[in-house]
Structures are given as C-alpha cells and as structure tokens.
Specification:
Layout lengths: L1 H19 L4 H27 L1 H11 L7 H15 L8 H30 L8 H31 L8 H11 L9 H30 L6 H30 L1 H4 L6 H12 L1 H5 L3 H31 L6
Helix pairs in contact: 2-5, 2-13, 3-4, 5-6, 6-8, 8-9, 9-13
InterPro entries: MCP, MCP_dom_sf, MCP_transmembrane
Catalytic activity: ADP(in) + ATP(out) = ADP(out) + ATP(in); dADP(in) + ADP(out) = dADP(out) + ADP(in); ADP(out) + CoA(in) = ADP(in) + CoA(out); adenosine 3',5'-bisphosphate(in) + ADP(out) = adenosine 3',5'-bisphosphate(out) + ADP(in)
Function: Mitochondrial carrier mediating the transport of coenzyme A (CoA) in mitochondria in exchange for intramitochondrial (deoxy)adenine nucleotides and adenosine 3',5'-diphosphate.
C-alpha cells in the first residue's frame, strides 16, 4: 500500500509538467480569427465559382483555341455542349475547380486579413482603414500567396476544362498523366504569367472593394453596407481588376494547355508574340474579355459578399458565446 502511494506521488509531477506544457488559452483564441477567415473564404470561393462555372469553362475553351470569340458563338457552344452531353457537362472540371478554389480563396481571404493587420500596425493605422498603397499591397500579397500555394491545381483544372472525359477521368488521373508524360515541371508551366497577373488583379480588386466600402461608410454613416451594395462593390472590383490583368490570363491558359492542344508555348513573350502574330492584339490577347465582363463581376461580387456575410455571422456567434470552449 505504501509502495503504491509512493508511485502515485512520483507520477504527480510528471502529470503537472504535462499540463503546464499545454498552450495557453490566449494562443488558441488568437487562431480563431484566422480559422474563421479560412472557413469563410473557402465557402465564398466555392459558391462564387459554382455559379459561374459554365461561363468560365466556355471562356477557357475559347482562350486556348484560335477560333474567333463572340457572345453568339460562346452561347452556341454552351447550348451544343448541353444538347450533346447533358446539363452536368457544363460543370465539367468543376470538381477540380473546387479542389483549387476552396484552398485558394481560403488562403487569399485569410492572408488578406493578416496582411491588413500587419500593414496597419506598420503604417500606424491599426484598427483603421489603410491608406491607398498599403490597401493595394495587402490585396497583391494575398493573391500572390494563394496562387503560389495552389498553382498545380489551377493547371489541372484548365486541362480538365478543355479535354474530353476519355482523356482525363478524374483529378488524380490528370496529375499522374502530366507527371508521367510531360514531367513534373509541366505542373508549373504558366506560373510566371500567373503571378504577374495576380499582383495587379488581386491588388486592384481588394483595393477597389475596400475603397468603395470605406467611401460608403463615410457617406452613409452606416458601419456595414447592405448585401446588394456589397454585390455592386464586388462587381465593380472584379470588372476593373480582371480587365487590367486579362492578357496575362490568356497567356497563362495557352501555356497550361500546350500539352494537349499541340502548341509549343514556352515563354511569356514568345506566347504573346505568337498570339498577336496569328490572331491580333484585340482578338488574341483580349479573347473572351466580354465573357469575363459578364462572369467576373458576378463571381467577385458573390465571393466578397458571401465572405463578409459569413464572417459577420461567425463573429456574432462568437459574441453570443457559441465558440467560447
């Protein structure tokens, strides 16, 4: 009996040491805003991309071909695809889109919140709206961070969008075939134009959206805009951002799908030169831009609105005590 009590006393300090090694509650609380931003960003990206998936797929098909683009031809392609392969075929490649977009949007929105806080403290605007340049910089850094971490998934999604189901049966099959037949480096083909395009696109998009919200608050004295106002702000942000970076988006798609279209796009300047020589500046580098003017504002508007609403909802739940434990 005495021996057993002695053993228990010897074990007690070890148990206490184990308890003392646990992270303090303040550290766990610090992670909550980041986790909430990740969840809200993933959900926002999934909703937005699913809504505009048929238009996005149609745009990619025209971007990677030499066929002349027009709204009439785009909607004819959508109709012919529907009649030939059924309604769900319009969402072909959307599973790959979700695999890419959910982590991309989660990382982008979460990192944007973190960059805003870091830049706010650096420039002396902690808890306030950032001045113009840091506002642009926070968006650019967020988009670049997300693109760097999820790029191979974008390559896979582009391949699935422009090929028949017989060539690539699922996401894993795309990874395996590209790695085996073309080399692992192919998964990063088009990475440079992607980053060069993301910097102005993400920077301008977040800058425009945050600026419109700031102006709205100053004019109406309301802390938060209504959902339809958020949609309008997001639509404006998407329209301006995508128009500014669109030629690099075309170059990126050509380089990503070169392995299945029989083309030899290797460098950014070489791809641009070949597109301009064969198709012209407007009809080549801006092919499908009118489709982007339709789907881009819708997607960005839905994405920003969904993120803000779900983020506010989770914040209210936290304030009500649902996430206290």
């Amino acid at each position: 009996m005495a021996h057993r009590m002695h053993d228990q006393q010897n074990r007690l300090p070890v148990a206490q040491a184990t308890v003392l090694d646990l992270p303090p509650p303040s550290q766990a609380k610090d992670l909550r805003p980041a986790l909430q931003s990740l969840v809200c960003g993933a959900f926002a990206g999934a909703v937005a991309k699913t809504v505009i998936a048929p238009l996005d797929r149609t745009k990619i098909i025209f971007q990677v071909s030499s066929n002349r683009f027009s709204a009439k031809e785009a909607f004819r392609l959508i109709y012919c695809t529907y009649m030939k392969d059924g309604l769900l075929s319009l969402w072909r490649g959307n599973s790959a889109t979700m695999v890419r977009v959910m982590p991309y949007a989660a990382i982008q929105f979460c990192s944007h919140e973190r960059y805003k806080k870091r830049l706010g403290s650096y420039y002396g605007y902690q808890g306030k709206a950032l001045p113009p340049f840091p506002r642009f910089l926070a968006g650019s850094l967020a988009g670049t961070t997300a693109a760097m971490l999820t790029y191979p998934l974008d390559m896979v999604r582009a391949r699935m969008a422009v090929t028949a189901r017989e060539m690539y049966s699922n996401i894993v099959h795309v990874f395996v075939r590209i790695s085996r037949d073309e080399g692992v480096k192919t998964l990063y083909r088009g990475f440079t134009p992607t980053i060069l395009g993301v910097i102005p696109y993400a920077g301008i998009t977040f800058f425009t959206y945050e600026t419109l919200k700031k102006l709205h608050t100053e004019k109406t004295k309301r802390p938060q805009p209504y959902p339809h106002e958020r949609l309008a702000f997001g639509a404006c942000a998407g329209l301006i951002g995508q128009s500014a970076s669109y030629p690099l988006d075309v170059v990126r798609r050509r380089m990503q799908t070169a392995g299945v279209t029989g083309s030899s796009y290797r460098t950014i300047l070489g791809t641009m030169r070949e597109i301009v020589t064969g198709e012209g500046v407007i009809c080549g580098l801006y092919k499908g831009l009118s489709m982007n003017w339709l789907k881009g504002p819708i997607a960005v508007g839905i994405s920003f609105t969904t993120f803000d609403i779900t983020h506010s909802f989770l914040l209210k739940l936290h304030q009500m005590g649902y996430f206290t434990h």
